Amino acid sequence: EVLTLSLLMYPVLRSFALQLHSAITGSYVPGTHSIAFINCLNEQIAKDIARAIMDKKLAAYVNILPKSLALYFWKGELEESTEILLLVKTRTSKISELSDYVRSIHPFEIPEIISLPIDQGNPVYLKWIEESVPRD
Length: 136
Prior knowledge:
By secondary structure, the protein is an alpha+beta fold.
C-alpha cells in the first residue's frame, strides 16, 4: 500500500519539488510551459476560439497565424484545405483542461490540438506566462 501511494504521489511530489527549485534558484524548469497548436477552419472561428481560451484564462497569449495549406487523410481520402493556426502559450499543467475545452467548442469532429513543452526561452517572458495563467 505504501509503495502504491508513493507511486501515485510521485507526479504531485515532482511538481512540488520543481516549483520549489524554481522559486529558490529563480531558474526556469524546462517543460513548465507549453505551446499548443490548434487548427481552425477560418479566421472567424480562430478568433472565437482564441478569445474563448483567453476568457477562460487558459493561456497567456494566442497567435493567430494566416492561412496555410493542409493535406491530410480523412476517412480514407486525401483532403486538401486551408486552415488558420493558433499558437497558444500556457502552463503545461493547463494543456489537458485547454484540450478538453477546445474540443467542446471546436466545430471539427476531431480538432487538432497538440502541444510541445517549452525547453528554454526569455526568462522574463516565461515568468510573464506564469503570472498570466492561474495555477490549477
